[in-house]
């Protein structure tokens, strides 16, 4: 189970990502952190993977209806492709870290 120290580390890292991307939207920065950590993607791959409507509108891209899927990445290394679907939730409040949906 996550601790307050874990929460603080993630929050600090997300704020750094937001600063690096010139954004005040921490939930958008969270996508970059998660996709980089889990899939080891580069920035351009992360941008191509994010399907979240809010993110796409904030970055000036056209958006549709994401059906709750925030990112999709299809990994194809010569074998059967692996499809990764992400639904991300981010909160700035530590008291909400144990909720199912912040």
Integer average pLDDT: 89
Tell me the major beta sheet.
2 strands, antiparallel
Low-confidence stretches: none
**What is the straight-line distance between the termini?**
16 Å
Integer tally of domains: 1
The percent range for strand residues is: 5-15%
Query: Total helix count?
Result: 4
What integer value in Å does the Rg equal?
Answer: 14 Å
Q: What's the count of strands?
A: 2
User: Which structural class do the helices and strands define?
Assistant: mainly alpha
Order of helices and strands: HHHHEE
Describe the global form: globular
Helix amount: 40-55%
* Widest β-sheet, arrangement of strands: 1-2
Folded structure, characterized:
- The chain has 102 residues and is mostly helical.
- The chain has one domain (4-91).
- It is built from four helices and two strands; from the N terminus they run H-H-H-H-E-E.
- The protein has helices spanning 4-20, 26-39, 43-49, 53-58, and strands at 71-75, 82-86.
- A hairpin with a 6-residue loop joins strand 1 and strand 2 (82-86).
- It is globular.
- The chain starts with a helix and ends in a 16-residue tail after the last strand.
- 15% of the residues are buried.
